[in-house]
């Protein structure tokens, strides 16, 4: 069925992300930190199926802790659908079925992927015909990571993480993700970082309010060079995430010992992302980590952003 005839159901898929670099600067007056980050969309996906309804409703399933996902207006996908309706004057509703694979509160932007998928799905379902720029503007109002989930690929985020510019990335990077059953609260990890910086007199003064991504990170991505990227990956939130969840330290050591090139906490954690040299070495690292009792997934990036699977 063509989009023009406004189908009764639209299925959209959107990727989770890892931050291959995350620099955190000072806190602006509005409470947001200055960020310089590089997102990469990876092949761990959220599926959102939107169906025509008179009211707004939502259901959640998938290989994650679905009980931790709100079903009301706190859900980012629900907020996305309502924001699109308000923006376009659409008077009906929608049922959003979320099939989640991205760990909840895992530092991989699962909620943001759901929101991006919901925007694309509802726009097609309702025939509201928004331009990419309009969808981007709504996405940016929903949260700093939502525009990236729309676009996918590899991108630099500056400002509060919301000023997005595509980054050139050649080839493919193989990652092994070690997920945790329990998530970490993003505000708790940022709060921990602030306290750690305050404890440390030397840093307490003024973390910068404007940051850049270091050139070696961008060069490594442009060259498609996993070794160089492994040497330049960094996350300012990692120390804080490790304080909140000390067991992650042993996880990182385990992956490095097995042969990953580098391991990093993704975003605010607790997911740990290991960069591997080849698909084969990633499969080996994944297998060994599983044998050691970890939940380990082999994914690759970059992959495209939110896209329609069927309509
Ligand atoms: P953040 O984007 O805040 O860094 P994250 O990527 O670590 O978060 P998410 O799974 O996106 O983790 O969601 C974090 C919190 O947001 C969850 O604990 C949950 O309470 C709430 N939430 C809202 N909408 C969703 C959604 N669609 N899926 C998962 N969690 C959601």
Structure commentary:
- The chain has helices spanning 76-88, 110-126, 132-142, 146-151, 186-199, 201-204, 215-223, 226-232, 238-244, 247-258, 279-291; strands spanning 9-27, 33-53, 56-62, 93-100, 154-158, 163-166, 173-179, 234-235, 262-265, 272-276, 295-301, 307-310.
- The mean pLDDT is 94.
- The strands form two sheets. Strands 1, 2, 3, 4, 5, 6, 8 and 12 form an eight-stranded mixed β-sheet that branches.
- The longest helix is centred in the middle third of the chain and has 17 residues, at 110-126.
- The protein is an alpha+beta fold and 311 residues long.
Low-confidence stretches: none
* Structural class category: alpha+beta
Query: What global shape is seen?
Result: globular
Assign a percent range to the helix content: 25-40%
Main sheet makeup: 8 strands, mixed
Distance between the termini: 7 Å
Radius of gyration, CA atoms, in whole angstroms: 19 Å
Record field, number of beta strands: 12
Tell me the series of helices and strands, N- to C-terminal: EEEHEHHHEEEHHHHEHHEEHEE
What is the typical, i.e. mean, pLDDT? 94
Give the strand content. 25-35%
What ligands are attached or bound here?
A: adenosine-5'-triphosphate
Count of discrete alpha- or pi-helical segments spanning 4 or more residues: 11
